[in-house]
Amino acid sequence: MSRPDHSTPDYMVRVSARARRVRLVVTPAEGLVVVVPKGFTAGRIAEVVREHAAWIERTLERTSERRAHLAGLGDAPVPEAIDMPGISVRWRVELRRGGASGVRGTLSDGTLTLTGDVGDTAACRAAIRRAVGRVARERLPLMLGSAEAETGWSASRVVVRRQRSRWGSCTSKHSISLNESLVFLPQHLVRYVMVHELAHTQRLDHSPAFWALVQRHDAAWKDRRRELREAWRHVPAWAEVPREIA
Fold it and tell me: Most buried by CB count within 10 Å: which residue of 139, 165, 196, 206?
C-alpha cells in the first residue's frame, strides 16, 4: 500500500506486461489499484493519482459498503447452507473431519459434504466455491439456451467463469461469458443479464437501437439495470476470492 503524501489516497501498484497506458481500477476487495506498463516511471504514479482524485473519491465512496462487507470475511464461519436462487438450488453443508490435508467437497441429495481438514475455514470456503463453480457451469448455459430460444438470438460460445467486475460480456464473435456468481442473484436479474448479452450479438454498442432490442424481451429492463448495480448484495462474502497484489 502506498501513500506518497497527504494529498493522495492509498493505492496499490500493479505492473502489467500487457498494459499500454496507466489505468486506475477500484474494486471492493482491493481498493484503488494503479495498473502501469513495464518501464513506467514510478515517480509519475502519484501525479496520475492526484489528477484523478475527484473520480477516485467518488468511486471509492460507491464501493465503501461492499468493502466493509468483505472485510468481515475473516471472522465468518463456514456457511451451514448455500442458497442459489438464480438456479433454484439450495444445499446443506456438512463438515466431516478426515485424515487427508486440504478439503474436498462431495454433493449428494442436496447436501455438500466437506471432508478433510475442515478446521481450515479458508480451505472449506475454497471447496464450496469450487462446487458452486461446477453447478454454475452446468446450469447457466442451459438457462442461456432457453433465452436463446425465446429471443431467436444465439451465442457462438458460452463460457462461465468467476469474474470480478462484470456479470456478463459478449465479444464481436458472439462469444458470451457469464459470471458464475449469477447463481446467487434473483432469477429475473439472471434473465436480464442473459437477454442483455444476447442482444449484443445483434448490436455491440449501448445505443438506443440496442436498448430497443432489450425492450422486446424485458419491458422492465430499466428497473433491472438499476437493480443490478446493487446486485453484489446477493453474493455472500465467502464467494469472493481473496487476492493479493504483487
Answer: 196
Q: Can you give the CATH number for the domain in which 213 is found?
A: 3.30.2010.10
C-alpha–C-alpha distance, residues 175 and 155, integer Å:
6
Neighbours of 240 (CB within 10 A): 20
- pTM (predicted TM-score): 0.75
DSSP string, 108-123: ETTEEEEEE-TT-HHH
- Specify the residue for cell string 438450488: 89
- Give the single-character DSSP code of 242: P
The amino acid that residue 12 corresponds to is: M
Q: Which residue has the cell 458464475?
A: 180
On whether residue 215 sits in a domain, the answer given is yes
Quick one: 245 exposed, middle or buried, by C-beta within 10 A (0-12, 13-18, 19+)?
exposed
Structural domain of 47: 12-73
Q: For Cα atoms 231, 233, 237, give the angle at the middle one, nearest 5 degrees.
A: 125
20-29 burial by CB neighbour count: b if 16+ within 10 A, else e?
A: eeeebbbbbb
Cell of 242: 481473496
* Angle, helix 208-217 to helix 221-228, in steps of 10 degrees: 100
- pLDDT single digits (tens) 24-78: 888 766 788 899 999 898 888 988 998 898 888 887 877 777 677 666 555 678 9
The confidence score (pLDDT) of residue 74 equals 58
Q: Is residue 87 domain-shared with residue 122, that is, in the same domain?
A: yes
Q: What integer pLDDT is reported at residue 113 of this predicted model?
A: 97
Contact 74, 110 (CB under 8 A): no
Q: Do both 89 and 68 map to the same domain?
A: no
